[in-house]
Write a structure and sequence with these properties.
Distance between the termini of chain A: 59 Å
Radius of gyration of chain B: 22 Å
Number of helices of chain A: 3
Order of helices and strands of chain B: HHHEEHHHHHHHHHHHHHHHHH
Largest sheet of chain B: 2 strands, antiparallel
Shape of chain A: flat
Number of strands of chain B: 2
Strand order of the largest sheet of chain B: 1-2
Largest interface: A-B, 14 and 12 residues
Strand content of chain A: under 5%
Largest sheet of chain A: none
Number of domains of chain A: 1
Helix content of chain B: over 70%
Structural class of chain A: mainly alpha
Structural class of chain B: mainly alpha
CATH architecture of chain A: Up-down Bundle
CATH class of chain A: Mainly Alpha
Oligomer: heterodimer
Radius of gyration of chain A: 25 Å
Number of domains of chain B: 1
CATH topology of chain A: Methane Monooxygenase Hydroxylase, Chain G, domain 1
Helix content of chain A: 55-70%
Strand content of chain B: under 5%
Order of helices and strands of chain A: HHH
């Protein structure tokens, strides 16, 4: 087995031990105050409106897919922006190809009525 | 990023078939969005012409063989062979699909776009010389195929087929990718020629255990994609549930490309480790043949029967792979060409007889077909005889070269067991022929409608291919024999 993996193994052990040790220490340090509020779902401090397992319209599914497409797009655009000068026109051409494929997908989804809400 | 990594015009030209297919697929999508309902029939024509153009381009770029994109792609005789083969399979499937989709009321452009994207992935699989590129091609081909398997989305069987194919297929892809990661961990490269060089170099200090683990994981992924035992169980359910033309496509296009990938990984990278591969491949080939043939014996659904038969054929091709020789690779290439024509042809007849909603896919529905449609019965008999391996058909020479390659590699027992298996296969192929010619049509089976233009052309091309390869096999075999050594 290559030796290069030893630090990762040590790191893994540390990662497992760290929370266990902390929980063990604080068990003796912290005051115990069991109140019902602590058992509620945490929603950034706002009181939970409803059950998280409630139903919602399937249309969100298409919105989510379109979101992922354009979200991933930015992930590809950032490295290009950083290396814009070095890549020069080659980079512009590559990104143009990439974006035109995405735009075709967008046009298709739009024409198919994926963005019409009702 | 250095300037040298910018591809030259020559390298982009070597990628031309994939570019053409992707562009064609994109334009078909735009056409689907922009055209009115009446003019959608043009999209099928467009898809067909794109596939034809890609095949022509593949032949054209083969005039200047070489690598592209820092050795990620390689254009040689082998990649040209499979690029043309998968494009031809795509064309035949487009021909048999048009009428089917119209009858089922799902005549839309996305179908053709998905076929084009899938074929683009398969071309990439044929031409990649590097595991990550192979994986990208594999996923491109697979993801489009998952959607195609469930194309009639109101149909429950379609949904079941698509979901099964997707879940099991993505699991297999993950195995393959994990194998690539292990190989990278063991050797520090994913380039197949580099892998071979390191395996041959005793001073490289290759960790044999890690390489073996990587090879085993790669084998799991590949065996799934070619539907080899023990990873074959998805194939019958998916082929039975998917629309008949899609089943024709799945049984040929992705399978041929997966075998191209298998051959390249085996012959380019792992020949130095042939001692370890041989017993595994031996077992897998034998198990695949036996399971495919014996399970096909008692099927009553013709699509399911053809699915088991396609598993058995994967087993025969694996016999050629087990030989791990140039003749074995050439035999596998020839067999895949022959199999493309005869299998798509058989599925085309099934598509035609099945009718609206695919209600007539049981064996009983084929009884007395010779009275109801003599031409169709005759054509299906030709394909079934070819699948059996009767002389004068493509299937005969396919099996002949495979078992010859096995004998040349001293795999006498495997060849004998393979021959016995093809004798078993004769039973279930002949049973359909007996059904068509010696039984009366079942009561209530009316006259069949006249076949569409597309299906006629597809059948004519398949019959021609089956006979040409059966009478003059050297047309294809010479090319395969010349290009197989290039893998090394």
């Amino acid at each position: 087995m290559p030796e290069g993996y030893l630090p990762i193994f040590i790191f893994l052990i540390c990662a497992i031990l760290f929370p266990l040790v902390l929980l063990a220490i604080f068990r003796y340090l912290r005051p115990s105050l069991p109140i019902p509020v602590k058992l509620e779902a945490y929603e950034c401090g706002i009181r939970a409106a409803s059950n998280a397992r409630g139903r919602y319209t399937v249309r969100f599914y298409i919105v989510a897919i379109l979101f992922v497409v354009f979200d991933v797009e930015t992930i590809f655009l950032f490295p290009w922006a950083v290396r814009f000068r070095q890549l020069a026109w080659f980079g512009v051409a590559e990104v143009a190809v990439f974006l035109s494929i995405l735009i075709v997908g967008y046009i298709w989804a739009y024409k198919k009525g994926a963005l019409e809400w009702v | 990023m250095s300037v040298s990594s910018i591809p030259s015009a020559q390298e982009i030209v070597r990628f031309a078939p994939e570019i053409a297919l992707s562009l064609g697929g994109t334009f078909v999508m735009l056409g689907e969005a922009g055209l009115k309902n009446g003019s959608r029939a043009r999209l099928a024509v467009m898809a067909f012409l794109t596939l034809l153009a890609a095949a022509v381009l593949a032949v054209f770029v083969a005039a200047d063989p070489g690598t592209a994109f820092s050795n990620l792609l390689v254009v040689d005789g082998f990649s040209t062979f499979f690029r043309v083969l998968v494009c031809a399979a795509g064309m035949l499937v487009v021909l048999i699909s048009t009428n089917y989709l119209r009858v089922e009321g799902h005549d839309s452009g996305e179908y053709y776009a998905l076929i084009l994207f899938s074929v683009a992935g398969q071309c990439l699989m044929a031409a990649s010389n590097e595991l990550i590129m192979l994986f990208i091609g594999l996923e491109c081909s697979s993801i489009a195929s998952y959607v195609l398997a469930g194309y009639l989305r109101d149909d429950r069987r379609n949904n079941e087929a698509a979901l099964k194919y997707f879940l099991l297929g993505s699991f297999a892809s993950a195995f393959f990718l994990y194998g690539v990661a292990w190989l990278w961990g063991a050797l520090g490269t994913t380039n197949l020629s580099e892998v071979r060089r390191l395996l041959l170099d005793p001073s490289a200090g290759v960790d044999a255990t890690m390489t073996a683990a990587a090879a085993a994981l790669l084998l799991v992924g590949l065996a799934f994609k070619v539907s080899a035992a023990p990873f074959q169980m998805w194939a019958p359910d998916v082929y039975q549930g998917a629309p008949a033309p899609v089943a024709a496509f799945l049984s040929v296009g992705p399978k041929a490309a997966a075998f191209a990938m298998f051959l390249r990984i085996l012959m380019t990278a792992f020949v130095p480790a042939r001692g370890q591969w041989e017993p595994v491949l031996w077992t897998v080939a034998l198990a695949t043949m036996v399971i495919g043939n014996f399970a096909a014996l008692h099927q009553t659904n013709v699509k399911r029967l053809l699915a088991y038969s396609s598993i058995a054929h994967a087993g025969y091709i694996l016999v050629a792979l087990t030989a791990m020789s140039d003749t074995g690779a050439a035999a596998a290439m020839f067999y895949l060409a022959a199999y493309t024509f005869m299998n798509i042809g058989a599925f085309a007849v099934v598509t035609y007889v099945a009718g609206r909603g695919e209600r007539h896919v049981e064996l009983m529905d084929f009884s007395g077909l010779s009275r109801r449609s003599p031409a169709m019965a005759a054509v299906l008999s030709i394909f079934l005889l070819s699948l059996t391996g009767v002389p004068l058909t493509a299937g005969f020479f396919g099996k002949f070269y495979i078992f010859k390659a096995a004998l040349d590699a001293d795999l006498v027992w495997l060849a004998v067991l393979g021959l016995l298996n093809s004798a078993v296969a004769a039973y279930y192929y002949l049973r359909i022929i007996v059904m068509m010619y010696m039984h009366e049509p079942s009561a209530g089976a009316g006259a069949l409608p006249s076949p569409g233009v597309g299906i006629r052309w597809a059948l004519a091309a398949s019959v021609a291919g089956t006979f040409v390869l059966g009478v003059a096999p050297s047309l294809v075999l010479d090319f395969a024999t010349a290009s197989a050594p290039l893998l090394r």
